[in-house]
Amino acid sequence: MLKSARKKPKDPEGRMPLVEHLRELRNRLVKALFAIVPLTVLALFFAKDIAEFISAPVPTCSEAEAAAQEGRCAVLSQMGLTSPFTTYMKVSLVAALIVAAPVWLYQFWAFVAPGLHRNEKKYALTVVSIGTPLFLLGAYLAHWILPYAVRTLLGFSIGGSVNYITVDDMIDISVKLTLAFGLAFQLPIVLSLLNVGGVLSGRRMLGWWRSMVMIIAVFAALVTPTDPVSMIALAVPMTALYFGAVAFSLFNDRRRARGRGPELSDDEASDLDLTPEAIGEVEAVSAGQAALPQQADSDRDRINGYDDVT
Length: 310
Prior knowledge:
This protein is mostly helical. It has helices spanning about 1-5, 20-45, 45-55, 65-70, 85-100, 100-110, 125-155, 165-185, 185-195, 200-205, 210-225, 230-260, and strands at about 75, 165. The protein has a two-stranded parallel ribbon. It is found in: Cell membrane; Membrane.
């Protein structure tokens, strides 16, 4: 009872001191962990199947076949006594992060939402419902291009050599690609939020299209393995999602302009209507309102030279 009475009411505009922001961030992280940790424990029971699924893109063969085929296949191995256990933990955590994507995406949005206006917070469910499929689509695309990336990388092998690929290596590259593709596919969500919040206009984003196409191409080249298939597979969807966000922003700006009239730039003055209009008859004083004091008709009625006591 006393605890609820001492609790301060929340600011409707989401303003809070730095300590409150840090406490809010901690609470959101804890809530996300409450979803990730149980899913990680559950995924441990299926870790072997998940590891085999992640390692499936590797063209495996024996040592003799690997030396004869000159890099067209590799030997899949696990190095060290603790490697199988760490492999189980890694694949379980990756599976939990992917499955729990709706939870931690919502927690991230809930942390950002208090800084938005009240009419902008209603997009929380929409953001999560769109962001989660986009993240999963990026993760699926990363797994789809992984076999092509592995074959391309194995093609640089020296003749007669044997390639040993550990399961940990496959998990690492799978995690990097999954996070890179999944988070990259959140680009339209971020741009749309900036537009809804009034930070960026659709016209400005459209003016950046040349720079954005170049940035997306460089980003795709950095986060993907050194093969053109992976780069194109990431750059093309990201570019399409960028232009989709631009189209949404232009439509949203037009809708907003219809609702509040024409917008003016910072250095542009609005037009003034200087047309004179008739004032019309003065309305009579309504009942219950005090009338102005009656003015004196002659000097005899003046008090000390003034019309009234004031």
